[in-house]
Amino acid sequence: MTTSPTRLWFLDWVRILAFFVLILYHVGMYYVTWDWHVKSPFASHAIEPLMLLSSPWRLGLLFLVSGAASSLMLAKMGAGRFLRQRSARLLLPLIFGMLVIVPPQAYFEVVEKVAYQGGYADFMQLYLGRYRGFCRGSDCLIMPTWNHLWFVAYLWVYTLLLGGLVIAFGARFDRLAARVGALLAGWKIIVLPVAVLSIARMALLSRFPTTHALVDDWFNHATYLFLFLLGAMLARTPLCWPRLEALRWHGLGMAAAGWAALTIYYALPDDLVSAQAVEPLMHAQRIVYCLFAWSAIVAVLGFAHRHLNRDSANRRYLAQAVFPVYIVHQTLIVVIAHAIQPAKLAPPVEALVLIVLTLTLSFGAADIVRRSRVLGPLFGIAPRASAHAVAAAGKRPAAATA
User: Which intervals hold domain Acyltransferase (predicted)?
Assistant: First the structure.
């Protein structure tokens, strides 16, 4: 039987901290060899093992937390109101972001990658005209694009699916959540999610590599939709959170071991592994990858439930500010990184400058946005409620806004 949770402040804290990790990760993308919008002249393999500390789990964690938050809001306001509110809070920022926030990323990408000589106004005409001529070989930039805002598009689609499931299942959705909660006990709370994630990774990753294009991204849908729906189920079975708390140290240990194993795997020379061993080793790596990802999620949720399950003025401020910060942060990183290249700062100093400027300017933008009735909805902030409503909301469980 499911029961209504009374306090889930820790989910907001997890979401806030996950977005901070995302900012650090995107700064790191400027310095590694992996493809990104702009690249440092000093890009190398040096910090790639550090990037691996969060890359397997940070987005999965955000989708799980978003699923839990969506489930709580659905239970509180009903499917119709929930879908209307979530569509407004997600689609407006997505459309505004694609038209205003994201284009500078694409502009500096073509300036650096294909030596585009035109000005920004000329570029915007091409961007809005769906120009397809910015190519390196067969790799062409598709415009307009959502870049890092792909998360918002996916979240909206998953929200619609969750709302549809709740409408179709009715009270049976709670019963299904209760069965899932009862199943995820003891060793099964580790093994079963890892099994689902591993099967998806082994079956789909090679056939459907990541595109973030929504319509053909089937491996990512199998992973992120599963975690989103799992989060929605966990929100209806609050006894699962103490189970994750009890396993927090085990999760941390398995995640650390998984990171070490993956670091070794990616560092192995290609000619060291025989042709016959390549496929079995790849499948083993994918299982370890999923064990690392889920163990890290268990650890994060467990430690957060233990230490961060409380409200505060800081939580209230950050919970509102973090979504506008997320919307603008990557554009700031790209623009600042390109602008300061002529200074030729040493990479550690340059990275610190990027982090400081991105955080300060992002939160500065968030402060402006949250004070504006016009800009607020464009960045996912609901119109200000009355003082009475705000006071009443402070007595209810927290629900993440994205």
Answer: 10-364
- How far is residue 305 from each of residues 16, 103, 230, 313, measured CA to CA in Å? 14, 39, 17, 18
The three-state secondary structure class of 9 is helix
pLDDT at 394 over 60: no
Type of residue numbered 113 = K
pTM of the predicted structure, to 2 decimals: 0.93
Whether 128 is covered by a domain: the verdict is no
Tokens of 382: 């609901």
Query: Helix 120-128 and helix 103-113: axis angle, to 10°?
Result: 110
Alpha-carbon distance 395 to 293, whole Å?
Answer: 34
- The values of phi and psi at residue 231, to 5°, are -60, -40
> What's the token pair of residue 32?
């590694």
Residue 116 domain flag: no
Q: Give dist(CA 395, CA 402) in Å, integer.
A: 20
Position 402 scores a pLDDT of: 55
Domain count, the chain: 1
Does 287 fall in a domain?
A: yes
Amino acid identity of residue 126, one-letter, is L
pLDDT in tens, 212-237: 999 999 999 999 999 999 999 999 99
Percent of the chain with pLDDT over 90: 88
Q: Is the peptide bond before 342 cis (omega within 30 degrees of 0)?
A: no
Whole-number CA gyration radius for the chain: 22
Q: What is the pLDDT of residues 61-84, one digit of tens each?
A: 999 999 999 999 999 999 999 999
Q: Residue 209's domain spans which residues?
A: 9-102+146-393
- The DSSP-derived string for 131-151 is ----EETTEE--SS--GGGHH
335: left (phi over 0), alpha (psi -120 to 50) or beta: alpha
19-to-94, 131, 275 alpha-carbon distances in Å: 17, 32, 40
